[in-house]
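Weekly structure sync - notes
Attendees: PM, LS, DV (DV joined late)
Agenda: review two folding runs queued last week.

Item 1: First target. Sequence and structure tokens pasted below for the record.
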Amino acid sequence: MAAAGGAFRVTVRTEGLVELRFVMPLPLTPPTVRQMRDRAMERVKRLTNEAFTLGDGGHVRDDDGCVLFLNDLVQDVLGDGDVVVLTIQGEDPEETEAEPPRRGARSGRNPVV
């Protein structure tokens, strides 16, 4: 697993809107896959200054395409130097705005009398 006397590292590869590849050292205290993903996303945001979101349902995949469980410890599912893949997509401005209610549409609530 971790290299003796050295830091545990993974290579992060992003695909989609932003395509990057960088090596990211991880702390000696084993992080979860979720913590590693969040740390990698922070680094991508610093490198690109782009507005984006994590695509593919927020999943992290290994280089073989297998989805990693977010609560697993990185060192239990990856080896030192392994590659993880994140899918990056652009933020859709229409998603952030609330859609106006449609005329005649029912909301499922009881009418106010």
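Item 2: Second target, run right after the first with the same settings.
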Amino acid sequence: MPQDPFEVFVEEHNHGLAALEKMERGAESLRQHGYSAEALRLIREANEFIKTEVKAHNQKEEDALFPVLGPYMPSPSIIDVIVEEHRELLDKEEDLQSLLGSLLG
């Protein structure tokens, strides 16, 4: 039986938040203890999830959810804010990818 689409969005969102928490744990470890393979692993895994799964989730929101909700929102709306946050996250992910590439050769 198909799952409720809103439940899917919520579940995907929660997985994205978990990836960001993983990245924060890795970054905090680097700040407190310096380089470790484990900290870098956490950051790389989280970044990989963000650049694939979170990016796909954000695109589904923009393609399927926001057009349905948009007519019911005042202008400018929270949707505009969220779309801008999606763009900022993508930019930061690309910056991190570049930095990881430089660090890892």
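Discussion on item 2: Residues 46 and 57 are 15 Å apart (CA to CA).
Action: LS to circulate a short write-up before next sync.
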